[in-house]
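Incident log, entry 3
Record: Chloride channel protein (828 residues)
Problem: checksum mismatch between cached and fresh output.
Input:
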Amino acid sequence: MNVTVSQPDCLSGESVISDLSAALLHPVSIHVGSTPTEEMNGAGNLMDFLDEPFPDVGTYEDFHTIDWLREKSRDTDRHRKITSKSKESIWELIKSLLDAWSGWVVMLLIGLLSGTLAGVIDLAVDWMTDLKEGVCLSAFWYSHEQCCWTSNETTFDDRDKCPQWQKWAELMTGHAEGGGAYVLNYFLYVLWALLFSFLAVSLVRVFAPYACGSGIPEIKTILSGFIIRGYLGKWTLLIKTVTLVLAVSSGLSLGKEGPLVHVACCCGNLFCSLFSKYSKNEGKRREVLSAAAAAGVSVAFGAPIGGVLFSLEEVSYYFPLKTLWRSFFAALVAAFTLRSINPFGNSRLVLFYVEYHTPWYMAELVPFILLGVFGGLWGTLFIRANIAWCRRRKTTQLGKYPVLEVIAVTGITAVLAYPNPYTRRSTSELISELFNDCGALESSQLCDYINNPNMSRPVDDIPDRPAGPGVYNALWQLALALVFKIVITIFTFGMKIPSGLFIPSMAVGAIAGRIVGIAVEQMAYHHHDWIIFKNWCRPGADCVTPGLYAMVGAAACLGGVTRMTVSLVVIMFELTGGLEYIVPLMAAAVTSKWVADAFGKEGIYESHIQLNGYPYLDVRDEFTHRTLATDVMRPRRNDPTLAVLTQDSTTVEDVETLIKDTDYNGFPVVVSRESERLIGFVQRRDLTLAIKNARQKQDGVVSSSVVYFTEDAPQLPASNPQPLKLRRILNLSPFTVTDHTPMETVVDIFRKLGLRQCLVTRIRLKKLKFTSLCVCVQASPGHHHQEGRPASHGSDDEPGSRVHHVQLERRVLPPDGVNRYRPSPPSS
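Fresh output:
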């Protein structure tokens, strides 16, 4: 993470986020004018001039970061009150029990709804994907496979053909074969694809701009404490569910797995609004969203354990032990619900069930590791190319025409995909075929081997055989499909439609792995006397399983793109049921991560977070600058001083003028401008709402009224208007560090404590006089801190008395990609 000095915090509109701000002040004594109880609960209390706090005080504005410590303090206070009241009556005891069980109820509801939506999406995608090629005459809502299931005229050799299912050319012209039928089917395939993608991008653009993309980068940012209002709203949930079906059915090189995490988090946010425990506390809400992310992966892959690990390793920022238990429960309920719907029709939860009959051998670790190297290189290539394309989309005229871009990419994809049977079918079906082992009952081209007529082995233990013409033809088609998938996925991911990356990445790896597996299999058959095969592959034995190589390649490419390790391996063996092959999966995943990390530490989601300018402090980033908190402090000598509030001498008009003329997130409260001794810190939003509400509901509050933050009102002349007490919106115990604290420590404090601001103290005892400073740092990737300390603190003989401000900020772009950032002028 690179640290630079930036302009003061300016939050104009939706564009600029200033959250990791460190305001530096030093308290002479934190308990000035406060009781110990107030010190503990200063952040949690709200208003003093009203009996009950009014709405929105203590909440956060859009595109801001929450204060984790304040949210934790609030929840502790709430829990303490409920516990104390539970001893007063039976009704209060019942309410406390309901509060304790509300978390489990929310998890149950999330699992049920996310599992149901995932099942409906799977069924709809299967039907609409097949609709591009034909229709079932007996029941138009049946997919191709379901239509032929119900037919009594289907033979085993022609299991994909039945009288009830007709392609569009056969239905319209009566001819199923021939050049004219092929052209007509080709044209209608492209037409359906364009229609589906046009509907998807139009719905997203008109009704829910936040429904585009994968959603995982934004989910990671939200779980780290960032506020993006509407991203997990009801409209986003509805539109994302509908457009996800349309986007996947269009045949674009994207998957539904990533967006299902977004859908599950929308379900979690929806149910949070039913319980005040979660709706009024952003920290508790994020615990629910972490569990919802686990449920999303659980239904996406049929991998509940992998979903929990994915949430822990890849998505969540704060993951306490109770969230682990609840995530497991939500993932379990979601998986059970999906299994009850049975969208795959195989009575299994896993998406790509495989059953291999040959163990793997130690010598095969070499090609497995090579597949890991390929996965790491592919991940690096994809991330750099996709980020370059997305950046070009943001900075050129291309970003102004998202509908045209989607239509163009869809048209190119459909035109190039139809001639190749491996790209024409859905990506999930392609991966399933690549994972399968070739048994005696398989009819795929990949299983067109030359059989020995004298073979008398069991059906499940077929020895290695020479490849037939169908296998070689399939290899050429797979090679073309590999190039096509690599190129088209770069331009597809990031468009203004729901687009997941898991399945396309797995498809690239599965194609490469299957090609390598067939090559190793044929080498072992034709050269079994080589030393590498001699010890474990005898003539006539079933030595190599090409489907296993496809599975390992899929894991390697997915790991290279996302940089997942533990959760990836668990997802893969849950996804396929291949627990015996966990070691090859681990070897490939670790190798792909090592290779990819050699070219850059960021995975695809972290890269998109940086591209969009979201304020995300990754715990895995290393802070390499050897600087202190004082090294990044601004302003310089001639810069304006920091705007502060005094504890009992500032008027309402002064406060309103200060709020109007500055864009700071909050203001330090000092005893007086002469002593500048810290009393506390008040948030800008709370201050604005408190004054607005006081003017409406409290008689006598006018512009000349004195605002005071002390316990007792100041001594004022009788002619003065009624003063306004705002002590309860004052944080009396802000977190502090010294100005000589290393910036590495400061960054760690922000990461691990989730602070919104940190007060940095500078104390000089030469004349028992104190200097107060307000400092912030900008965390901005790609910029480097300018070395050299500012000279803004007076001479060495006497400390300066000015208070200064530097704001730490991150920038964010709204969904339309327009950068509305406007630097604010220096405040005086």
